[in-house]
Every structure is written in structure tokens, then in C-alpha cells.
Amino acid sequence: MLPSTRALASDLGLARGTVVEAYAQLQAEGYLTARRGSGTRVAKIPVSTREAAGRLAARAEPDRRARPPRFSFHPGLPDLTAFPYSAWTGALRRGLRGTPASTLGYGDPRGRSDLREALASYLARVRGVVADPELIVVCGGFSHGLALLSRALQARGDSRIAMEDPCVTMHRSMVATAGMAVAPLPVDELGARTDLLAPRKVAAVLLAPAHQFPLGVVLHPDRRASAIAWARAADGLIVEDDYDAELRYDGQPVGALQALDPEHVAYGATASKTLAPGLRLGWFVVPPALIDAVLELRDAEDRHVPATDQIALAELLRSGAYERHVRRMRARYRRRRERLLVLLAERAPEVRPLGIAAGLRVLLALPPGGPSADDLARRAAARSIELFPLSQFHHDGEPSDPDGVVLGYGALPEYDVEAGLAALGDLLAESM
Ligand SMILES: Cc1ncc(COP(=O)(O)O)c(C=O)c1O
């Protein structure tokens, strides 16, 4: 069953006529069927046609044949159907019109100066970052900046980094690929155990102070102070992952740690939650001692992020469209979060939602005596629901106590939220 043309047009920010035309075209080609009163559905394609198409697809790309789950509660994705298509294309058009051709050659490895200036003023205002445009490096997402910093550290002979346990699995492998050894740093209800950092054991630590991934804790002021004290005593580097700070729903806004010591903190953030991860756009404010090493590496790989993307993002920031979009998305995700909390209270009151104050996900702490997170994920998969057990994010891959599921509520397209939550509610109610 497809969403109504009105709902899809609203999700995609398109004129309804455009969606009606697309449906009519797909219907004419036999992919959709429409019956008055019962909506539009995907057509049943004859088996022979489907098999022939399947064989072709299998030969071309075997991995792509797996059916995506009906509902994915991916913890790292925003609602991709909410990408601001017209704001982005408008910004690109306006930005290009104001761009002299002379600046479209090979550019500065830090990124275009207009984008770095727009980022500096945005970061200072919204996150309290001490942001000198000369120290900003625009990169291919937060992860790319993390890899660059790891390589810069490795090149100067620093080869150990502490990383929160649990954390983003991909970040661990990227850091390891850069040749760094990873020391797990436990996380408790006050955040990462920065009080355990010892001089000379590690050269750097990666922290997500505003909203730890995936536990959702805010780094306690004492732990912020321990992190800074360690960095000063050891001349160490704190890599601050500020990936979803704009999406905070309640409580005090948590300022960036970088403001406490810009000499020892590399501040990184991304467009992956506010716009889309496929853009591969992120930015770092790099401490002065590391900027040359990072730029040398940046210049020696692909030089810089594509100019057109930088031009569009700069214009989006300058015009205020970026912040308007973030405000709209914050309201949308907050509504989803409320729906989810009500659903949990009604259908699975024994499951405790944690880390709910910000971002696109919650941690569902499972009650003792119920199914494990792995069991629950298996049951979910049988219903074409994708869930992510917390153990995936632990360095040793083992379940913690209590066991949990990292549940993203951002990834569902808006038109699927009700159906997705209902399916989740049924699963939990029947499994607990
Ligand atoms: C904790 C955390 N940091 C950073 C990122 C963003 O990474 P990138 O900007 O490379 O897409 C993510 C995305 O899932 C994340 O979950």
C-alpha cells in the first residue's frame, strides 16, 4: 500500500500534482494498481517477469537483492524523506550565481572560506564553540575528520586512543585502520569515565559529551573537568563528537566542551543528522598544533569536499534556511519521541527508555527475565522489523547488564511512523 499522494507530497515537499503524475506514470507502466476507495498498491508482477528481473539483478549486484525490512529502527539515520530538497537546490542556485568562476578551481583543503566563516559564526552562536575560520576543516562527515585526526596523531608517533565503550562500531574500525590502538573507556550514568584517563597511557580520547552514543548520557560537569585536566596534564587530544546537539528536546542545552580548552579539543560535527548522511558533509575545528598535519593529509587525498556542496551549505547557513529546517525537524522528532514514550508506557511498561533528552533514538533497557536483546531482534526480524541490540556497540560485542536495544525513531519516513510504532508495540507487548 502506498501513502496517499497528499501525504507523500507533504513529506517530500513537492506539489501534489507532481506525485499524482508519478503515480499515474507508474500505474501506466504496470508497477502500481489503483482502485477507487482502496488506495494505490504495488502491483503483483507476474512470477516469470519477477524471476527474470531477479536473475538479472543477482548477476549485477548479488548483495542488493536482500529485501529491506518493512520498518527499520536504525539508530543513526534521520528521516531521509524530510531532506529539504527545495531549500537545498535554491541555496545551490543562489550560491552558484554569487560565485565567481575564479573560485571554482582546486580549492583550499580546509574548505571554501565563505563556508568556514558561515560555520564559525553558526558554531559560536549555537554551540558556544571557539571557532576561528582558519582552523575549520570541512570534511566528508564526522568520521572522515576522525580518520584524518587519527592519521595525524599516528604520523607524529601517538598511537593509542581511548574510545567510549559502547560507541559507534564504524568509528572504532576507522581509527584502527588509521593504525591506532583502541583502549575502551567505560561509560556509567555520569557519562564516560574520564576520571580513569591516565597521562601517557593514551594520546587522545574520543567523547560525545552532549549525548553519548548509544547510551544517551550527558557528560557530567565533573567528568568534563576530568577530561580537560587529563588533556592539560598529558598534552593529550580530546576529539569531541557533537553529532546531534541541535536535536535537544528538554533540559539545559549542553555547551561544547571545546570552549573550555580549544588548544586540546578538536570539535567535530556533521550534517548527517540534520540534513542527510549521504551528503557526506562534516566539519572540525582543529587545535592549532594539529592543523598543518591535518591539512597536509587532506591535501594529499582528494584535496577537499566538492565545491558545489560547500556552496549550497554555505548559502543554507547564511540565509537562515539551515536553522529553520533544524527547528522543523526538532519539532517533528519531538512529536515522535512523545508518541514512542506513550506507546511504551501503554504496551511495554516494563521496558525503560533511557537517554531520551536528545537525538534520534532511545535506549530501551530490557527487564530481567524477559527476552534478551538478541532474541528480541530475531523475533523482530521475523516480522520484518529491524532492531539493533546494544551489544553490537560494545567493544567486546557482549551484552551488558541490563541488556538493551538501541531504538532509532528518526529513520522511519513520516508516513510510516504510526504503522511502524504500532508494529513495534505489538512486538514488545507479545514478547515481554
Ligand atoms: C555518534 C555518532 N557520531 C557521528 C556520526 C556521524 O558520522 P558522519 O558525519 O560521518 O556521518 C554518527 C552517525 O551515525 C553517530 O552516530
Description:
Helix 6 runs parallel beside helix 7 (169-177). With 432 residues, this protein is an alpha/beta fold. The longest helix is centred in the last third of the chain and has 27 residues, at 321-347. The chain has helices at residues 5-12, 16-28, 47-60, 85-97, 113-127, 141-155, 169-177, 221-234, 288-300, 307-319, 321-347, 373-382, 417-431, and strands at 32-35, 39-42, 71-72, 136-139, 160-165, 181-188, 191-192, 204-207, 237-241, 265-270, 282-285, 352-354, 361-365, 385-386, 404-408. The strands form four sheets. Strands 4-11-10-9-8-5-6-7 form an eight-stranded mixed beta sheet, with helices on both faces. It has a three-stranded antiparallel beta sheet with strand order 12-13-15, covered by helices on one side. Strands 1-2 form a two-stranded antiparallel ribbon. Bound molecules: pyridoxal-5'-phosphate. Residues 76, 141-143, 168, 208, 213, 241, 243, 270, 272, 277, 282 line the site of pyridoxal-5'-phosphate (PLP).
